[in-house]
Amino acid sequence: MKLNNRLAALSGMITRRYKHIWDCCCDHGHLGMALMQSGSATTVHFVDVVNPLIDLLTAKLQQQHPDSDCWETHCCDLNLLTLPERSSDHLLIIAGVGGDLTIEFVKNIIANNPHHNIEFLLCPVRHNAKVRQTLKELGLKLINESIVYDKGLFYEVVHASSRAQEDIVITGSVMWDKLNPKHLQYLEKTIEHYERASRSSPEKYRKLLTSYQELKNKLF
C-alpha cells in the first residue's frame, strides 16, 4: 500500500515489534494496514469515533484477512479508551488532529491507564510547541522525532515514552538537519508565525520566539 509522506514517516519511526499498536483516529486505516503487512505488532487496533468509518473498515479487513487475529477495530472516544493487558507494551499513534485535541487525548489516555507501559507516536496539526510542553509536564521523554513535508505542509512527528531517557525540547532537537533546505524553510515559517503572535501577545510568545530565533542562529 502506497502511503503519503506523513504516514510513511510515522511507519518509518517504528523500529521494533510491539504487542499492541493502536492506529487512533484511523480514518480509512491505511497506516494500520501497512503496519499489519510489515508485521510491526502482534495486534493492530484501528480506532475512530466515526461509526460508519469503522463499519467500512471492519468489512474491508474481514474480506482481506478473514482468518486473522492480528487486528481489531474499535468505535470509541479516545478520551475513554481503556487498554488491555497491563504487562504488554502499547504504541498509540495519534495523527491528523489538532494540537489541543492531541493533548486532550494523551492526558486522558494516561489518566485512564496509569499502570500501562505506553508509547506515543504523535503527529499533530499545529500547536507543536504546546504539545511538546504538555508531554514534558506529563513526564514523557523523547525516543525520536522528525520533520515531515507532505503536500505543501510541514508536520512534526514525536515518539515519546515515560521510559525514554532524552528530554523533550520545545523547539525540537534531533529532528533538525542543517543541510536540508526544507528544514530551514520550516523554521523560518515557524519564526514568522511567532513574530505575528508575539505582536498581539508578547508575554505569551516572546520567550518561545526567542528560542526559535536562537535555534536558527545555532543551526543555520
Please, could you describe this protein's structure?
The protein is of the alpha/beta class and 220 residues long. It folds into 2 domains: 171 residues, Rossmann fold (3-Layer(aba) Sandwich); 45 residues. Helices cover 42% and strands 26% of the residues. It has 7 helices and 7 strands, in the order αβαβαββαβαββαα. The protein has a 7-stranded mixed sheet, sandwiched between helices. Helix 1 runs parallel beside helix 2 and helix 6 runs antiparallel to helix 7. The longest helix is centred in the C-terminal third of the chain and has 20 residues. The chain is globular and about 55 Å long. The N and C termini lie far apart (37 Å). The mean pLDDT is 96.
Short recap of the structure:
With 220 residues, the protein is α/β, with parallel strands linked by helices. Helix content is 42%, strand content 26%.
List the helices and strands and how they pair.
Elements: H1 5-12, E1 18-24, H2 30-38, E2 41-48, H3 51-64, E3 71-75, E4 89-98, H4 99-112, E5 117-125, H5 128-137, E6 141-150, E7 153-161, H6 181-200, H7 202-219
Helix pairs in contact: 1-2, 4-5, 6-7
**What percent strand?**
25-35%
Count of runs of 4 or more consecutive helical residues: 7
Rg, rounded, reads 18 Å
- Count of all domains: 2
The CATH top-level class label of the largest domain: Alpha Beta
What name is given to the CATH topology of the largest domain? Rossmann fold
Query: Can you summarize the main beta sheet?
Result: 7 strands, mixed
CATH architecture of the largest domain, by name, is 3-Layer(aba) Sandwich
Q: What is the strand arrangement across the widest sheet?
A: 3-2-1-4-5-7-6
User: Helix/strand/pairing class, anyone?
Assistant: alpha/beta
The gross shape turns out to be globular
Helix content: 40-55%
Low-confidence stretches: none
Please tell me the overall pLDDT: 96
Overall strand count? 7
Query: CATH superfamily name of the largest domain?
Result: Vaccinia Virus protein VP39
Q: What is the terminal separation in angstroms?
A: 37 Å
The secondary-structure element order is HEHEHEEHEHEEHH
